[in-house]
């Protein structure tokens, strides 16, 4: 069995950058509408702000799923030895942990000088170390903190799945049990975990979904990728059911948050958890399908642009809150509602375009990994050397 696994050669999947692109657009949409969900409650189009803010919450779960998929897809067929494990952690130290440290320091200093200029040196250092070690230096860095937890677990889970391959088929049920066990026990006081969304058990089902698909993808590709040549009544039914679940759960998720935010109705927190889980779990698979559909229609300008954004998505994720922070210092000084709507839309564009320009420019320099991780080099013409294959999450 191990010889067959080791010998198996896996194809490159350039479609994954399109998934990364859609995930980062989801993140930017949620973050750029967050203030509007509070400030625009009385607006006649509040339902639209709420829709974008909730329906697009697939970004972080999709990144975790995709990170896991890439890891298991790339590593499962390789012999698990000391060299592989050390190489794995070296890459994460260089391309994930160091950028995480740099941006934690960056955002911490901004907040220090704008909000806590009189804080003592000892308190400042203590605060930074605490926030660095818990992913709280800025609101979005919890995602990197979660991924680092999964990086610690990955070699252990990989070793288990390689030793007991039959367990892989149970990956998703195992993930759901761990995730929901953590959620329910925390809700009812069996355990007490502050900021549970910053801890890996909250996303364990997505990690295990990525593991399942990463290991079995060559065998189940025809059930995932929507392609005419793959279509059978059973597969079309499965694809349709997935999309129905995604849209149905997504709209239900949007609706209960609309009722909550408008002060109309508040439900048990487990309903919000359930609909978020069902909605974003299905969304991760749907985005995967959309990426293959788009890429299968040829490398259009849209696909090329999305692929580039996807390749830079980790850097965009790290820096985009800085652009939102600056942008929000200049709200419209008028009561004209249309101007306010345009201003909120402008926040999304500023975050996307500003981040893209900075990270794309940085990718031209060899030391850009210190800030933005392992960025793909920009194309320089027909004689360009192909980008290095990455096995790192966006």
Give a quick precis of the structure.
The chain has 394 residues and is mainly α. Helix content is 70%, strand content 0%.
List its salient traits.
16 helices; mainly alpha; single chain; disordered C terminus; 0% strand; disordered N terminus; 394 residues
Structure, described:
The protein is built from 16 helices and no strands. The chain has 394 residues and is mainly alpha-helical. It is globular. The protein starts with a helix and ends in a 22-residue tail after the last helix.
Considering DSSP H and I runs of 4 or more, what fraction of the residues is helical?
A: 55-70%
Main beta sheet strand tally, sense and closure: none
Low-pLDDT stretches: 1-7, 381-394
Shape: globular
CA-based gyration radius: 22 Å
The total of beta strands comes to 0
Distance between the termini: 32 Å
Kindly report the average pLDDT value: 90
| Portion in strands | under 5%
Query: Helices and strands: which structural class?
Result: mainly alpha
One letter per element, helices H and strands E, the order comes to HHHHHHHHHHHHHHHH
List the helices and strands and how they pair.
Layout: H1 2-7, H2 16-33, H3 36-39, H4 46-55, H5 59-75, H6 82-115, H7 121-132, H8 142-163, H9 171-187, H10 204-224, H11 233-261, H12 269-296, H13 301-311, H14 313-327, H15 337-362, H16 369-372
């Amino acid at each position: 069995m191990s010889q067959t696994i080791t010998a198996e050669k896996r194809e490159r999947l350039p479609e994954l950058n399109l998934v990364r692109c859609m995930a980062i657009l989801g993140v930017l949409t949620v973050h750029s509408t967050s203030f509007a969900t509070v400030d625009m409650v009385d607006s006649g189009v509040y339902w639209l702000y709420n829709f974008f803010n909730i329906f697009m919450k697939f970004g972080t779960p999709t990144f975790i799923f995709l990170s896991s998929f890439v890891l298991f897809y790339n590593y499962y067929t390789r012999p698990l030895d000391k060299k592989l494990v050390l190489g794995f952690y070296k890459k994460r130290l260089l391309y994930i942990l160091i950028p995480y440290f740099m941006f934690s320091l960056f955002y911490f200093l901004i907040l220090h000088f704008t909000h806590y200029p009189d804080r003592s040196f000892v308190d400042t250092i203590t605060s930074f170390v605490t926030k660095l070690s818990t992913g709280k230096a800025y609101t979005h860095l919890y995602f990197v903190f979660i991924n680092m937890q999964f990086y610690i677990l990955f070699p252990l889970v990989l070793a288990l799945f390689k030793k007991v391959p039959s367990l892989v088929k149970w990956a998703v049920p195992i993930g759901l049990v761990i995730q929901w066990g953590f959620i329910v026990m925390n809700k009812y006081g069996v355990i007490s975990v502050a900021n549970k969304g910053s801890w890996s058990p909250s996303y364990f089902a997505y990690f295990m979904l990525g593991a399942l698909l990463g290991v079995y993808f060559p065998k189940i590709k025809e059930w995932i990728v929507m392609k005419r040549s793959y279509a059978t009544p059973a597969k079309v039914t499965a694809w349709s059911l997935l999309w129905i679940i995604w849209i149905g759960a997504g709209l239900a998720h949007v609706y209960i948050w609309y009722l909550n935010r408008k002060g109309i109705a508040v439900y048990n927190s487990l309903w919000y958890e359930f609909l978020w889980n069902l909605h974003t779990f299905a969304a991760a698979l749907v985005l995967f399908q959309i990426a293959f559909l788009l890429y299968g229609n040829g490398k259009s300008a849209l696909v090329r642009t999305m692929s580039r954004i996807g390749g830079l998505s980790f850097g965009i994720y790290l820096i985009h809150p800085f652009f939102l922070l600056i942008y929000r210092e200049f709200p419209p000084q008028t009561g004209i509602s249309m101007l306010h709507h345009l201003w909120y839309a402008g926040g999304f564009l500023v975050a996307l375009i500003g981040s893209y320009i900075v990270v794309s420019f940085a990718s031209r320099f060899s030391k850009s990994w210190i800030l933005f991780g392992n960025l793909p080099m920009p194309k320089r013409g027909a004689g360009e050397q192909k980008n290095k294959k990455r096995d790192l999450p966006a």
